[in-house]
Amino acid sequence: MANAETLKQSILAQVAEYYRLVHSEQPFTPGESRVHYAGRVFDEREMVNTVDSVLDFWLTAGPWAQQFEKKLGAFLGVREVFPVNSGSSANLVAVTALCSQQLDNPLRPGDEVIVPATSFPTTVNPIIQNGLVPVFVDMNAADLNLDVTQLDAALSDRTRAVIFAHTLGIPADLDVIKAFTDKHDLYLIEDACDALGSKWNGKMVGTFGDFGTLSCYPAHHITMGEGGAVYTNQPKLGKIARAVRDWGRDCWCGYNSPVNGKCGIRFEREVPGIPGFYDHKYFYTEIGYNLKLTDPQAAMGVAQLDKLPDFIATRKANYAYLHAAFQQFDDYLQLPEPDGRADVSWFAFPMMVREGAPFQRHELTRYLEANHVETRLIFAGNITRQPAYQHTTYRAVGDLRVADDIMERGFFVGVYPGLDRPRLDYMIDVFKKFLRR
Asked: Which fold has domain 308-436?
């Protein structure tokens, strides 16, 4: 074993050297290098952790996943964290858990769920997949979040929940939303996939409702390649969510549990009509899936969490630098206006081409892309106009005019930690050249 450990450390040292030779930062050449809207930011620590995990060959969720759960929970200030294989799966687990028959008042098919019209598809899809009915409210043009003044108009005797994403990291008005859900006894899920580290009145977003969800796709604040998490401060909901994630089984023993289980009664479950006892590792209380992440992914995530405070600080600094520069374009571009109670961990820099500008959005974004500045649009725009949703059952409040405006004129550029001042300055210069035309 001593020889094996020596060999392992030699391998890991060579992995670190390989990173320095192959993956260290490439020089930026204006006009030739891409200015990405987002991307993975890593060093030898992620690669060493991942290879370390592979050498142990646990592969499925194991010791590294347990460490990731604890570190992420400490950062968010929550007691229950369940890593999953994507942010989309996180939303599916959260919505499905609220449909559990173990709850006193579960969501049932036909119940309505209020959701913003400008949404990422997999914020909405679990509503439909669970037989629920999305009720779309319009957007607030200032912060690109759901228009909280429409919540009362969206309410009906079938309304049971509110689900929304904090758009591109900008916290929605949680004072109004939480007061509304509390008043009407509604479930609340916060999709914080773009908002890891954002706060509202000093409290982490994702911790106000019944569930928060995260994504660890390479474009997000931290990455595990694919991956995400569901989190809650409610033990009962946590137990249900874990079951939904883990095939629907009732077992919650976790990693390296004793033979008789962490609960001590592994072999004492009873199935009605079947004599004797049943191993609770095969005792199912939910209609679930297998949505866990792998241990090598979690090993990468542990290294990323160590960098997260610096990542957030850099995103904020990059946003501030661009905001100061983009103010000169105010005649043409509408910049975001977050609420003063919001402390934004920016995913990106969103903006809208002003109505009446002498160009259309696609002319600007094509110019930026042609000059190596990446852009993306804001989620699905008005998702009710997307082909996939033309034959779904939903209800809409009003004409969703602002969601249409976002679909027609909204886009974003990057602020992620891989952007330095030369790249930001180049981006600003490309904007200037287009707008001078």
From this structure: Aspartate Aminotransferase, domain 1 (3.90.1150)
Instruction: Name the burial class of residue 66, with classes exposed (0-12), middle (13-18) and buried (19+) by CB atoms within 10 angstroms of its CB.
Output: middle
| DSSP-H helix ranges across 23-141 | 44-56, 63-76, 87-97, 121-129
| Over residues 143-158, mean pLDDT | 98
Q: Where are the alpha helices (DSSP H) in 276-420?
A: 295-326, 361-370, 401-409
Give the predicted TM-score (pTM) of the model: 0.96
**Cβ-based neighbour number of residue 408 at 10 Å:** 15
> For 261-317, how does the pLDDT look when each residue is reduced to its tens digit (9 = 90+)?
777 788 888 888 999 889 888 999 999 999 999 999 999 999 999 999 999 999 999
How far, in whole angstroms, is CA 62 from its chain's centroid? 22
Q: What are phi and psi of 163, to 5 degrees?
A: -130, 130
Which of 256-283 are b and which e, b meaning 16 or more Cβ less than 10 Å from the residue's Cβ?
eeeeebeeeebeeeeeeeeeeeeebbeb
State pLDDT tens for residues 330-341. Answer: 999 999 999 999
Q: Are strands 333-334 and 348-353 parallel, antiparallel or unpaired?
A: antiparallel
Please check the confidence at residue 255 and state whether its pLDDT lies above 70: no
Report, as residue numbers or ranges, the catalytic residues. Answer: 220
The CATH class for the domain spanning 50-297 reads: alpha beta
- What is the Cα gyration radius of the chain? 23
* Terminal-to-terminal C-alpha distance of the chain: 69
Domain boundaries defined on the chain: 50-297, 308-436
Three-state secondary-structure class, residue 291? coil
One-letter identity of residue 68: F
Distance of CA 46 to the CA centre of its chain: 20
Residues 6+ apart with CB under 8 A from 121: 380, 383, 386, 388
